[in-house]
Every structure is written in structure tokens, then in C-alpha cells.
Fold:
Amino acid sequence: MLNWRAVGWLPEQGPDSLPNDSYGFEQADDEEDHDDNRTVSPKMPSSGRDFYFIFYEADQDSSPWLKVIYGKMLQMETDETVAVLSAELVVRDKRGGMFLTCDISSDELLRYARMTCNDDGSLRPTLSNAIGNPARINAAGKGGFLFLDEVHVKRSFRGQDLSLEFMRGLFRYLGSRWSLAVSTIVPYDFCDSRTANGCDYEPPMRTDEERARLCRHFARIGFEQLTARGWFLERSQLKALSKEDVAQLEVMTPLPEYEPPRLSHQLDIKLQEVAIDASVVGYGGEEEHTQNMAQLESLLKQGANINTALGLHFAAGASADGGTRWRSVALERLLREPTCEIGHMDEAGCTALHVAASVMSEKACRILLDHGADPLHRNIGDGDTENATALEVNQANVAIKLRSREDYFHCRGGTYDRNGQRQTVVASMAECRAGYRACTELLEKADAARRAQLDLAEVLIKALMYSRTLSSHALCLQQIHKAVTPPHTREYAPASSV
Structure:
């Protein structure tokens, strides 16, 4: 996140302060025993020699493929720190594993990696199309993937383009170790994130003009816009442009944050909880499960709204936490309710089928498909599942769900013991992979069946347009109605057989 606003302040720091989080690098200077992987650059003077840079670098979580970088910009005469930055460098390997490496750090780094690259580091079509030049595409798909997190400059030193000078210093320090940089360019005040910790500062609203001005500022060194929030820079395209050169640059700003409707009725809030409880046989066994189902029935009779409460989403998602303890009766009961909308979407545009696919629940997917869920419906989310069908969400999530034994057990609601239960863990992982394959095959068949239906409907609609008799009209309309109904269960085995 590249920042231009004056760094906010905490009451004990004053209004012209910098974040004091140095990621442990500066603290290690005073310790005799520090990480052997940590390196510190020599003093690097700025172009005008009024300032100098120092960069700290270390392996993230002992991974040689991921480097965390912390930089300081200091005044030459006084040694006063005037700016700080943080970044991460991913070493890409054509054998794959980039997503796993990024996930060691943060969801944000993983999201940018998946938005721009494939798992082997090569560029995805979205970024390749934006670059256009084959030689540049090839060069940007190799070497280091640099994620620029934050740049903070003291208020009293603003207006001198020090942030651009600082970034050029970082690029000079890295040399040829990077080929592609990505970031979110957004105005940000350090105190914006500290209001919950006793800071009475009221964060100002960020206007589109503020965003555009900041984006044009960093476009002066070559950054180009990929999405409303994402920007990229190739090493071969580093520039030194003036303010006038970018004054007319068009900037796409993100839409206002979506605020999901609040649950106004206590029944809807309770339904979310009960939809999960009634979907899993807990420690109370079948007797407790029967009571939960009775409570679900009671809430529906009292008028709880399945759609507003996202009841289908919660019932389908419970199959991840419950594993073999998951029961489909709650989901099937909700689907029988006349007011239930099978295609109801959450704030990200995901239907219950997206949720079932993301947790690799073949049985939940099958039940939803049997009730008419559209496998071709695309969501409107961000990151790795942006504008994705249920099948694509399933494929995008499997790399994360199966990336390690620990995370598998986390997503299944269990615990992982590094020193024990190894055989049980491996067996469960094999079961999870088998479930993923079965879920993928089911969704692929449903996708194909739905596409065939739509193709048939298109042919029939054209026939209707050119027919000349009323009887032909009636026949075509009848056939169209049949064509666009949910796929027959012969396309895939019924849910009861799973």
C-alpha cells in the first residue's frame, strides 16, 4: 500500500512521527544473537546526497523463497529518519510453489500473486494483455516478484518527491533481483489503523481526487494500473516523469465499499447459528441434532428469512467444519421452504453453491445442483476468486485448503499435533484430496450440462424467431422451457448415492 498522506500520530508520539514497527530489524542490532539470515545494506546516498538509505533484509519464516525488506531514509547531516518503507520479495520458480510461498506471509500478498501470476510465476492473461509486448511479458514472468507494502514520509519533509527517491533507492539496492512489482496505491494515514487503540483522531474521508493524485504521483516512476486497486511496475519500464507528464493520466478508482444489509430481525440472526448447528452432529450426538432441527423448524415457522440470513450459505459451509459429521437434512429442509431462493447471493455475489464448492463438499454441491443451482453463475468478489463460477472457486481454493496438513485440520475444525497423529493426518489428507477430485468432476459435469442447455435454448429461440405459425411458436416455447430447467439427475448421480 503506497502512501502519500502525512503519517498520523499517536498522542505520545506527536504529529510528525513515523510508524515505530521496524519488523524486529532495528531491535536485533542491540542483540548479540540475531538471525544469521538477516542482512543490512551499507549507507546508500540519494541522488542529491542530502539523504541516504539503509535497507534490512531477512528470510520470512526461514523460507529462502520469501524475503522481508525494511528500509529507512535518513537526512545526511542529522541522521534523522525521514521516511520508512516495507516490502516483500518472492523468488519465483518455474517448478511452481509461488502461491504456497506467498501464503506464508499474508492474504494480501497471496491475492496479488494470484491476480497477476500463475503458480510457476509466469504471468496470467490479465497482466499479459495489459503489457502486450511478448519480450516484456517473458521478462516480467521470471525473477523476483516484489510486493511494495507501505511507504511513509514525515509531514515536515513532504513536497520534495522523497517517496519516489526512496523507491528508486530500493530498486537500486535490489538490482536485478526483481522483475515485477505490485502494490495498492491509496492515501492512508498511520493513525487510521490506530483509532481502536486509544487514538481520538478521526480519519478523513479519502476522495477520488486524492486517490487519483497519489496514483499519478507513483505513475511518474512507471507504475501502471491493472485493476481499480492494483498497480504494477516492470523493471524494464522504470521511468522518471514530471508532474506535467502524468497530469492528464486517467485513473480508475474503486467503487465505494459494499455494506451488506444488517440483520434487523433477531430471528434471522438466530437462524444463522442454528443452520450450522443443525447441519453437524456434535458431541451431544443424534439427540442434540434432533433438537437443533426442531429449533430450525420453529424459526422458520416464526418467519425467519432464509435469504437475508444466508441460511443456505451457512448450512452448506458447515460441511467443511463438520467433515463426516455433516448432515444434509438442514440444507434440504431450507431448500423446501417456499421463500428460499437457490440463487441468493451474499455481498461478494457468491451463491450457496460457491460456498459448497470452496469447501469441496461434493454432497452439498450435488444437493444444490439437484435443486436448480446454476453452476455457471459468476460472483463479483475480489482476488483469487474474482468473477468466478463454483468450479473455478473450487479449483482456486484447493491449493490453499490442501497446502499443508495443519491447514487441512484447521478447515475441518480439528487440531494438528506436529509430533503425533501423523498416520491419521495423512489418511485424512488423502480423503480430502479424493473429495476434491469428486467435487471437481461433479461440477465439471454440471457445467457441461448447463452449457448444453443454454446452447439448445439459443437454437430454439432462433427457431422461434423465424417460425411463421402459432403452433410452431407454442412448440418452441415449450421446448425452451424444458431446455432451461435444471439439469436432470441423470446428468450426475443423485445426492442420496454419495
